[in-house]
Amino acid sequence: MNSDILYTHICSYVQISRDEFERFFNLLKPVHLKKGELHYIAGKVPRYWSFILKGCLREYFVDTQGNEQIFQFYEENTWVGQVESMITQKPTDMNLQALEDCELLCITGDDMCNAAKTPWIQHYTIQNSFSQNAAVMKNFNRIKSASPEVLYLEILNERSSLLLRVPQHYIANFLGMRKETLSRVRKRVAHL
């Protein structure tokens, strides 16, 4: 499997030699998911922390009324996983589902903990985690306070690829609105 995508991604955060990278890369296992397949499931401890080479996934939980609530969408060049669940060995309450056929590079929790003793991996994971956590918090705060039009415009401007890859009812769920509301917002925005 081609390692250039991950190498380029890591080098955007830290400078490492190709040899250092190859030692890390050898810990990764290629995993292919078919559309609709779950990579991890609520009630179990996930096995892998995964880098997305190709595809789009949704992470969601089921609320107390039995409704799915989408937490986040993940696309190429992103790590995804329930690291805390893997480290503590406590089951996650999240599900991760492929929305299209996906290619992942996966590392077990044990292998990642061992690899994290390497200074460049420590620096990379800290930098990458800060970046991903900031994006999640920004999204969470925005959904709590912004109008439906603002939410849709932001996804249109910042993550427009999702609008082509993800069914509209999932977009509406992610933005915290009904499918009908999203349809009205899309019509209003189209006339701006």
From TrEMBL:
InterPro entries: cNMP-bd_dom (IPR000595), cNMP-bd_dom_sf (IPR018490), RmlC-like_jellyroll (IPR014710). GO terms for molecular function: kinase activity. Residues 12-107 form the Cyclic nucleotide-binding domain. Keywords: Kinase, Transferase. This is cAMP-binding domain of CRP or a regulatory subunit of cAMP-dependent protein kinases. It comes from Chitinophaga ginsengisegetis. It holds the Pfam family cNMP_binding.
